[in-house]
Write a structure and sequence with these properties.
It comes from Vibrio marisflavi CECT 7928. The structure is a single chain. The chain is an all-alpha fold. The chain has seven helices and no strands. It has two domains: 51 residues, no CATH class; 73 residues, AhpD-like (Up-down Bundle), CATH 1.20.1290. Helix content is 82%, strand content 0%. Helix 2 packs antiparallel against helix 3. It is globular. It starts with a helix and ends with a helix.
């Protein structure tokens, strides 16, 4: 195992996704620790690349997961992450609305409802 690669990924996961990211990794422990390790390492590899800041990366990720339309759990993690790295609620709403043109209204509606749930959870 490349310990430095894993540690870098875990550090970035903690600072960007926080508890939600750790919950995803922990949920894999009993079924596939190898996938958990690979996820952390790949996250670190991508999020530590130069030329795109983490806010832009989260905007791109929210757009992609919204467009896919069937990734609500992962979308919620990244909606939280987008808020954690400085995206405003209005910026995120605009990204989701933008996806209605490219991914269709059902995907955009699903994304907006996921965002509504994230905001409600954060208010608690």
């Amino acid at each position: 195992m490349n310990t430095l690669r894993f540690e870098k990924g875990l550090e970035l996961l903690s600072s960007i996704d926080g508890e939600a990211g750790h919950n995803v990794i922990a949920s894999l422990d009993t079924i596939s620790p190898d996938l958990a390790k690979h996820t952390v390492e790949a996250f670190g590899d991508v999020y530590s690349r130069p030329n795109l800041d983490v806010k832009s990366r989260e905007i791109a990720t929210v757009a992609a997961l919204t467009a896919l339309g069937n990734c609500a759990p992962q979308l919620k993690v990244h909606l939280n992450a987008a808020l954690n790295v400085g995206c405003s609620e209005e910026e995120i709403k605009e990204v989701i609305i933008q996806m209605s043109v490219y991914a269709g209204f059902p995907a955009s509606l699903n994304g907006m409802f996921a965002f509504k749930e994230v905001l409600a959870e954060r208010e608690k």
